[in-house]
Amino acid sequence: MTTYALSDSWTMTRRELAHWARQPAQVLVGLVFPVMLLLMFSYLIGGGRGVDGDYVDFLVPGMFALTMAFGLEGTMLAVTQDLNKGVIDRFRSMPMADGAVLVGRSAADMLQSALGLVVLSGVGYALGWRVHGGFGAFMGAMGLLLLLRFAMLWIGILLAMVAGKPEMVQAVQILVWPVGFLSNAIATPESMPAWLGTVVEWNPLSQTATAVRDLFGVAGAETGHIWAAVAWPLALLAVFFPLAVRRFRRLSV
């Protein structure tokens, strides 16, 4: 049964990758957008409030975490479009493992997210950002970032099925912006009003950003947040993954 499910999921993943070849512009936009954010905050509006040391070393890990919350609309649109075109209904009428369509879509998104981290790392290196924690710490940081993305992805998939229509995705996507910017990605909580700093510190995205800075060896980075950077995404997955699967199974055939 496991082999059957993996085979179906891989088939759906290849379907999504084929869409990349037919619509490369969408993939390129997804890669360019975080680069534009990094350049904008680095050169135009980045003040580095409350940051000790090099702001670029502080900003780049924060932008890594921030972009793990952004770009979900591509997956959300794909899910809603499949729903409205009857594609998912046709797949569910076939002898296919439950959820293979969603797993394939999520796998393609994770591949694009990993590619986005590679591109953003190259741009950050060009800006002067450096990793001081060694290769093992670097890979651990990348793992934490992708874990956060995986959790955010299943929240997006669930919201897409709840929204039901492509035109509703934009409205739902707007909710991501407050979550993203209510974090320590671009400024420290100490530079904010006390009540706002408390909200920022509890943001799962902030926990990942702080842990990643620690692993990268950023000067003055807080330590001891790696456990929270693992626990928060796992908690989100424990809630939203089963909800998304249950919602998918309840869709009318």
How would you characterize the overall build of this protein?
Belongs to the ABC-2 integral membrane protein family. The chain crosses the membrane at residues 25-46, 58-79, 100-125, 137-162, 226-245. Pfam families: ABC2_membrane. Keywords: Antibiotic resistance, Cell membrane, Membrane, Transmembrane, Transmembrane helix, Transport. This protein has helices spanning 2-22, 24-44, 55-69, 73-85, 87-92, 100-127, 135-163, 166-173, 176-181, 194-202, 204-216, 226-249. By secondary structure, the chain is mainly α. The protein has one domain (2-6, 30-249). Helix 4 packs antiparallel against helix 8 (166-173). The longest helix has 29 residues, at 135-163. It is globular, with a radius of gyration of 19 Å.
Major sheet size, sense and barrel closure: none
Quaternary status: single chain
Through-space gap between termini: 23 Å
- Percent helix among the residues? over 70%
Number of helices: 12
Mean of the pLDDT scores? 83
The radius of gyration computed from the alpha-carbon positions, rounded to a whole number of angstroms, is 19 Å
The number of strands is 0
Quick one: overall form? globular
Low-confidence stretches: none
Which class best fits the helix and strand makeup?
mainly alpha
In percent, how much strand structure appears in the residues? Answer: under 5%
Order of helices and strands: HHHHHHHHHHHH
Count of all domains: 1
Features:
single chain; mainly alpha; 12 helices; globular; ABC2_TM; ABC-type transporter activity; Nod_factor_ABC_transporter; transmembrane helix
